[in-house]
Q: What sequence folds into this?
């Protein structure tokens, strides 16, 4: 059949070498290959981009103007394409209002559930607040015994001072005869007014009746009482009372709730959001560690950084603060640490009474005031909110840090929304539960028949979405977790769960390493989810390096053989078994076991020193105490969500940074970190981009471009023309082409068609002006050097030791194929991390440096992992320490020391399962990592 394949002809995007390939449809297809070989260029930049473009082309010109423009990929033809959906790692929202619940739409269904079957409770009296119809009230009264003497009253005042003469006169005119005043019956005609200094409770007697079969009279009387009592009515009988309410308001204190609707439970809507933090759950508060970093200093010595530059000057702000201190006799020469709590409260929050003070300005003008004087914290917080100057706002922000909102306590919603409960929980308490706990709670919910009928479809949707999250290994996440705190792999699997929930068929899904951050134990669940999507009638193209996922695929495509200009070809394609037998495929060689990363013969002993974290309890860590031996390659591992990042990034890394003088870094909660004196430098190498603009590139980031520009400034031509190194920068005026401002390309907006990028007609895409390009070194201009790959540049600068050394480190980390001038925005996360690693490797080892890497194997083929291990071992050989968070078994088996955290994710994690050498961990039967590691060490992978 013709339509059972995607046929690609002449793909030339990025480094692809005019490749032709047929990919089976409705199959689980894996694209693999060494880093930089062209997998992403084929999967995302060619197949997905063309599928997306064709869908957009089918829309009207009017609709297309609201969508982003899409360029046609460099390919001759693609046949058999379906509508394409990409699930990549770069779609995590950093919006503080975006949570796991909102991203998966579970929170939308929860809001609907609470609006339809939620019951409001008074936060003070813990009583349910229910709205009743007159029919329900009459039915309740008719349940009383016949011939019961009833009195129907309208409560109009509760504990209010005053004579209330006007109210009494109004009641007389309306024909009412009796009232109940503070529990005593009183005739209105005998009452002129009350004591204005005492509190009064008044209920008006609307009717007195003996209960019989006269429903109509009871209904009329209740209606009149409700009208007079503003929705409240009382029925008194036999020394007992029934209080009825037409409103959603508490019978005792009047706490009221608006009509329940989904908007009330949204922290993004004014109706439901906390009025103080506007639904963010956090506010900006002055952090005293930022404001007073050294408490041994006095105020006069500059202890309060905010006043440091105006102390003892004729500055009105300082004079006002001095008047505050003088009034309360606060000694500004005493060390701040010796001031009392009361004195600190006055300095921070201001006077508790109006102060009479006199100020004299620089010009000699004297004025006197009697007013409250603001404290320094109150002043900074107010000015931060009020100022319109960006520079001032940034200055005030240096003293602030995020703190839970004092009104809602971080719950984001107002009191009315939080008062509504379903099965005893308000909506915030539900979102605090993990996915796993939520599924258990759903199974235990007890609803009456009416509630079951109303909530049946809503609960079905919530249950399905929670189950999908559990199926992709995310059952440890809580629904209130901020989307910005998720790793790339977690965010991708959330989107995957959302797509499974949509039950689409006939769609082409393109995924980018969904197994990132997933422990081997959870891999089977992910693979089952991917196969479930395939079985719905979808085509899956997955860029992946994980061996388990590759073995489980229907079709495997190996792109290579090398990276960059050495790649871009289809090396092997077929079933995993066929690829394993292909002698040209590196992937096949590793899958079949012909090649493998060797296990070290001996484990490094280290330098005998260690860091020790005592009593760590950040996030889900349960009072953890653990040692990190120095001078070794340490790997921290464990199932997803077990607490690895909390321990390494939040507690240890931030704790060391704080101890090294970075006061703005707030470490995670722990009692103490011992051994900090053994570390004088910490290098945190994340996968964040090395630059946010296309102008940043590997040459500028590693600093080698400075050396290259110095070299060009030394050429004879540059000296004759009087050029310095600044002339060879494409970021500043002088040497760059001003027509394109050093970009080399011009963007032409085509409105309804995709934007067209054309080479600059002045410099012909070479970024520099003619005079600059005339200066050459060995016959090459500065532009020619930027177009070289790292490997070519090493040969070219062979005699220039400083440049060659820096370039060699890039090659050592497996980036020999990258162009020196390649835009930072086009580098993958793994490539960006290795550029950072290379720039740090150029520096001399101190023996006291700690390198921290978070999942450095992301995006790396097994052959690249081998190169990365060589680099990490080289750092350790130099006497420094490497600490890696990792799931990759090739890294784990080569570690000198392993710390395994578990046993599960979320609340069920946060404990040290085992720590020791790989052999010791493999011997631990209750460690999931140990079980998988044992197979690898025994060669049974």
A:
């Amino acid at each position: 059949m013709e339509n059972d394949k995607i046929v690609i002809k002449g793909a030339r995007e990025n480094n692809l070498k005019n490749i032709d390939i047929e990919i089976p449809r409705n199959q689980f297809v894996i694209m693999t290959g060494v880093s930089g070989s062209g997998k992403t260029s084929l999967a995302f930049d060619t197949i997905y981009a063309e599928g997306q473009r064709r869908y957009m082309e089918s829309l009207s010109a009017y609709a297309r103007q609201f969508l982003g423009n899409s360029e046609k990929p460099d390919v001759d033809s693609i046949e058999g394409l379906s509508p394409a959906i990409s699930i990549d790692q770069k779609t995590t929202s950093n919006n503080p209002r975006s949570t796991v619940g909102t991203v998966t739409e579970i929170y939308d269904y929860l809001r609907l559930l609470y609006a339809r079957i939620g019951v409001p409770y008074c936060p003070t009296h813990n009583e349910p607040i229910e709205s009743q119809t007159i029919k329900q009230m009459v039915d309740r009264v008719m349940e009383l015994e016949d011939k019961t003497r009833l009195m129907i009253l309208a409560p109009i005042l509760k504990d209010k001072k005053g004579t209330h003469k006007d109210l009494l006169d109004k009641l007389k005119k309306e024909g009412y005869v009796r009232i109940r005043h503070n529990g005593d019956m009183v005739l209105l005609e005998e009452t002129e007014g009350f004591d204005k200094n005492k509190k009064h409770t008044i209920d008006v007697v609307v009717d007195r009746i003996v209960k019989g079969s006269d429903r109509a009279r009871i209904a009329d009387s209740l209606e009149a009482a409700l009208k007079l009592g503003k929705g409240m009515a009382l029925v008194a009988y036999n020394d007992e009372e029934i209080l009825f309410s037409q409103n959603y308001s508490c019978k005792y204190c009047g706490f009221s709730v608006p009509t329940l609707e989904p908007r009330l439970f949204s922290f993004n809507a004014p109706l439901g959001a906390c009025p103080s933090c506007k639904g963010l759950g956090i506010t900006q508060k002055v952090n005293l560690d930022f404001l007073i970093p050294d408490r041994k200093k006095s105020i006069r010595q500059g202890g309060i950084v905010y006043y440091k530059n105006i102390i003892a000057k004729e500055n009105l702000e300082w004079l006002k603060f001095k008047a505050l201190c003088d009034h309360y006799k606060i000694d500004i020469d005493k060390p701040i640490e010796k001031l009392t709590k009361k004195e600190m409260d006055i300095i921070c929050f201001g006077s508790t009474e109006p102060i009479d003070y006199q100020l004299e300005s620089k010009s000699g003008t004297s004025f006197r005031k009697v007013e409250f004087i603001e404290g320094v914290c109150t002043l900074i917080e107010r000015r931060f909110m009020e100022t319109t100057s960006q520079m001032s706002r940034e200055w005030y922000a240096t003293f602030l840090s995020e703190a839970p909102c004092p009104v809602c306590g971080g719950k984001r919603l107002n009191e009315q929304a939080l008062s509504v409960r379903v099965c005893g929980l308000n909506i915030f308490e539900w979102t605090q539960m993990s996915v796993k706990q939520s599924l258990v709670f759903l199974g235990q919910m007890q609803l009456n028949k009416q509630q079951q009928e109303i909530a049946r479809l809503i609960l079905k949707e919530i249950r399905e979405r929670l189950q999908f999250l559990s199926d992709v290994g995310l059952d440890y996440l809580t629904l209130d977790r901020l989307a910005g705190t998720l790793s790339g792999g977690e965010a991708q699997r959330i989107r995957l769960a959302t797509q499974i929930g949509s039950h689409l068929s006939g769609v082409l899904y393109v995924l980018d390493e969904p197994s990132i951050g997933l422990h081997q134990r959870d891999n089977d669940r992910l693979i089952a989810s991917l196969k479930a999507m395939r079985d719905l009638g979808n085509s899956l193209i997955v860029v992946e390096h994980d061996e388990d996922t590759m073995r489980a695929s229907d079709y495997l495509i190996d792109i290579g053989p090398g990276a960059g200009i050495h790649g871009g070809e289809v090396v092997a394609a077929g079933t995993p078994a066929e690829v394993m037998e292909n002698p040209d495929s590196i992937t096949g060689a590793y899958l079949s076991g012909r090649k493998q990363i060797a296990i070290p013969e001996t484990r490094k002993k280290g330098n005998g020193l260690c860091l020790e974290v005592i009593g760590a309890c950040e996030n889900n860590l349960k009072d953890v105490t653990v040692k990190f031996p120095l001078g070794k390659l340490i790997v921290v591992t464990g199932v997803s969500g077990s607490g690895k990042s909390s321990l390494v990034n939040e507690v240890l890394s931030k704790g060391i940074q704080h101890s090294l003088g970075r006061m703005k870094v707030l470490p995670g909660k722990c009692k103490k970190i011992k051994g900090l004196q053994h570390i004088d430098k910490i290098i945190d190498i994340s996968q964040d981009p090395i630059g946010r603009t296309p102008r940043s590139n590997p040459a500028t980031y590693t600093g080698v471009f400075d050396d290259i520009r110095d070299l060009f400034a030394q050429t004879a031509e540059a000296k004759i023309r009087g050029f310095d190194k600044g002339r060879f920068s494409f970021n500043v005026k002088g040497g760059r082409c001003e027509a394109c401002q050093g970009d080399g390309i011009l963007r032409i907006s085509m409105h309804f068609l995709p934007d067209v990028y054309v080479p600059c007609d002045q410099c012909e895409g070479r970024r520099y002006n003619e005079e600059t390009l005339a200066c050459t070194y060995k016959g090459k201009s500065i532009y020619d050097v930027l177009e070289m790959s790292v490997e070519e540049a090493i040969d070219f600068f062979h005699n220039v030791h400083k440049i060659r050394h820096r370039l060699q480190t890039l090659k050592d980390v497996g980036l020999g194929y990258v162009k020196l001038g390649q835009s930072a925005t086009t580098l993958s996360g793994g490539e960006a991390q290795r550029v950072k690693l290379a720039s740090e490797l150029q520096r001399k080892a101190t023996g006291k440096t700690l390198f921290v890497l978070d999942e450095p194997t992301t995006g790396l083929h097994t052959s690249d992992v081998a190169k990365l291990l060589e680099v990490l071992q080289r750092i350790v050989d130099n006497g420094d320490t490497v600490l890696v968070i990792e799931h990759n078994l090739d890294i784990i088996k080569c570690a000198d020391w392993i710390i395994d955290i578990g046993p599960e994710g979320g609340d069920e994690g946060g404990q040290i399962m085992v720590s020791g050498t790989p052999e010791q961990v493999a011997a631990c039967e209750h460690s999931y990592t140990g079980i998988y590691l044992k197979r690898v060490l025994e060669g049974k992978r």
